[in-house]
């Protein structure tokens, strides 16, 4: 996930992960491996699953809690820094003009206060899906060497 990877990158580079105020917005981050397994299960079901649903992870936590879990990883070694939401949004807007930070924008900051958890109970019931809770590991933030060769420029 771009947001989770961005937090880890910021933490490694600057030794802090900025959050907007208390960053209370709830999240249910889902691991890429769990999404891949879900996709295979949906395609293999008889008949193939044909419905739309959000897919959430196995735990609900605040944006701040998610940032703290990432900051606490030994390879990140950062702390979570609360900033006034308007100041952080302005900083994100200013950074967005730089090529390296083009994907960063003020709306990312505003969303830290909003709940982004969805009801995926139909998906879990129909496909017997039980994703893991958010517990980031060091390996979640590295690309295996053999995969680096396959990345597009």
Characterization of this structure:
The protein has helices spanning about 1-15, 30-45, 65-70, 85-95, 105-110, 120-125, 145-150; strands spanning about 15-20, 25, 60, 80-85. It is mostly helical and about 150 residues long. The protein contains seven helices and four strands. It is globular and about 50 Å long. The relative contact order is 0.24. Helix 1 crosses helix 3. The mean pLDDT is about 90. It has a two-stranded parallel ribbon. Strands 2-3 form a two-stranded antiparallel ribbon.
Percent range for β-strand residues:
5-15%
Give the integer mean of the pLDDT values. Answer: 90
* Succession of helices and strands: HEEHEHEHHHH
What distance lies between the first and last C-alpha atoms, to the nearest angstrom?
19 Å
Lateral arrangement of strands in the main beta sheet:
1-4
Radius of gyration: 17 Å
The number of helical segments is 7
Structural class: mainly alpha
How would a textbook summarize the main sheet?
2 strands, parallel
Question: Uncertain runs with pLDDT below 50, 5 residues or more?
Answer: none
Shape: globular
What is the percent of helical residues?
Answer: 40-55%
Give me the count of strands: 4
Layout of secondary structure:
Layout: H1 2-14, E1 16-20, E2 26-27, H2 32-44, E3 61-62, H3 63-71, E4 79-83, H4 85-95, H5 106-110, H6 121-127, H7 145-148
Parallel strand pairs: 1-4
Antiparallel strand pairs: 2-3
Helix pairs in contact: 1-3
